[in-house]
């Protein structure tokens, strides 16, 4: 039995030369069982090489009778490894059952005594390049998919989920690698780019979905919107290209990829469905394609059924929708408007109506609520609603629906309710003007007076000459309203009271005189 001490390097070298054939057999077994295209295999080899090059392997003893070599590997913790030269086996104290970086590190440490480890690793990795080279020489949908997915073989670290900037860097880097295999022929470039973007999106999807729940969620959502925009541009270009017989298989495969992606059952259906809709509204637009689209789903969701009904001009029956699906149905209502499908628009909007408040306040971030209230107000104005329906909608909109509700009240001539609404919500002057104050001033000036009074007093509270000038501007509008409604005696009494109450504010008195309010 050999024990290795001070003369370890020389003794290990002689041992490696003595059992050179055995070490080569170990390396051949590694080469056969591991492949660089498998992410875990490539990572294992890379980490084992790192341990060897940083002196992480120590050979302790070798039993000539039993042909057992004992070593330790300095990883996060020191790990014991035993090689059985007789059985060409390796045992490690770590939990991994078969190959592990510790076993590989010990074998690599012995191998580099008799040959070049760097050359072996380079040759081993060349197996991947040979495969990729073969793929690039065979143009088919399956080969394209394999090429693109090969650039995503490395696992994605958890920290990428928590930091959008790492996520963006990783995605752009791997997408760039995928695009490096783009065909040279111009007519194939856009189709390949579409494949690269779609497949890369599916590969990174789990990380993206997790990122939308982290602190950088808004960045992840913006990234998704940008990806949709990029895909829309590519699909538009593809739609304008002449399809050849050779490309038919690629378009068929693309349909399968999109359908499989949309049909995956998880909590990100809305985003998946949005991508699916994009392909079928921008690229797969022939009636023949759309007639068979729904049949490709094993168990189509009601939203998918409604989507194809809208595209084909068939009757839409949403039934009772769930509150969590309201966002998808709103987008389908927009599609119904674009397709001129009035029955579908009305059916979808009436099905959504009970869930509007839940959709706005539980399903959306604050910054998106104003936008969707405007969208919903416009859509509902395109169908027949009763006054009770409108009242219910505006109640569900909350304060985000003030502009739409105000426009409705002005249209109906309900000026008193308009004024009470803005008093209740303490609307600032600029907002009241945007919501129709001028129309109320002209049609029913009496109801505008309390608002003008409140706005003027708010300026007085600021106690500056600039704010007094603002108050005078408001009072001029109030005076015009009094004159229009025949209430000048009230106006004179009102201004006398203001002058008396604020008689110590000399700057205010001067501005009132300049404004000729009396």
From TrEMBL:
GO molecular function, one term: zinc ion binding
Keywords (A to Z) from UniProt: Metal-binding, Zinc, Zinc-finger
Domain SWIM-type: 77-111
Name recorded for this polypeptide: SWIM-type domain-containing protein
Organism of derivation: Planococcus citreus
